[in-house]
Amino acid sequence: MFTIPAVPAPIRILALEPYFGGHHADFLEALRRHSRHRWTVLTMPARQWRWRMRGAALHMAREAAPLESRGFDLLFASDFLPLADFRALAPAGLARLPAVAYFHENQLSYPLEPGQRRDIQYGFMNLMTALAATEVWFNSAFHRDSFLAAARAMLAKMPDGVPEGLADGVAAKSRVMAPGSNLAPFAPGRARGQRQPPLTILWNHRWEFEKNPETFFDVIFFLAEEGVPFNLALVGEATRKWPPVFERARKRLADRLVRFGYIPAREDYEAEVCRSDIVVSTAIHEFFGLPVVEAIAAGCFPLVPARLSYPEIIPADLQETFFYQDPRELRVKLVRLLAGKGPWDKLAKLADHVQRYDWANRIHEFDAALERVAKG
User: Which residues have C-beta within 8 Å of that of residue 315, sequence separation ≥ 6?
Assistant: First the structure.
């Protein structure tokens, strides 16, 4: 007689997110919604990140204390929580739980704007969180490796009192867990027929210096001056004070802009991505690159640098097509694409490939890993 294997009972997870906004909020909400486990989520608003890293444990330990009796199996914390402090301040029933620290970014290898100096205390807090966690999850291998290299460099500068093997210990309990996205709404973009000029170039990254908008607009201004036909959609999350080059672009490219500014409604953002044709990244820093994944899922042709986390997203046999080595090669490839001469036939394979990042496919690995950590 055939018997269906029993499904293990869901575990109970207490999630702690001191910076609940942007991709941190999107990630945690989607993970909770798709997971088969039972989640309780404590959050704080996404503001004053330095104070969050310094003081969130004080607030969250107190907020979590009345929940101790719920019998949680696991803590799930983001990189903004000083986990070692939380364990010291929380009731014993919470402090002793297995804990996953999920690193969206870190303050050891995050690039600094010109003229800034790194405040090492925040990077050290990230390291202490990693040491206090049962497992440390990074959103890419590039992120994990850059964090560990920066941690080793920082520890090498300490004058004394450094226990041996700290970074190696973090490495041994580290795991790469790429985030997911709801990619189904981007499918209509793939259903479009033959692309007709002028094609639309998409910028859907954050409007911050580490995404290197200056290089992007240098290329775009060159194309405009050469009379190359194209439209431009400038979306993505923008801070109150974005790089000045965006304002120059608004004036110089007014006749080519089809969208300018952050799109708060998710449905409107998805529709804009689906209307676009080419997505470009000029980032000097990218720990994962979910906006590029979403654009690819919508049928956009990606042109991205041959570094950072992109080699993990683009399969090796397609990298020559979708990578560029320098701004000159980016210009050459863009001109060909905008003239309708690019290898568009290779895009379907890549769009199929990135479906692995849909939450419907990612959640199985997350749920299994969470259960494994909880049960030791």
Answer: 350, 353
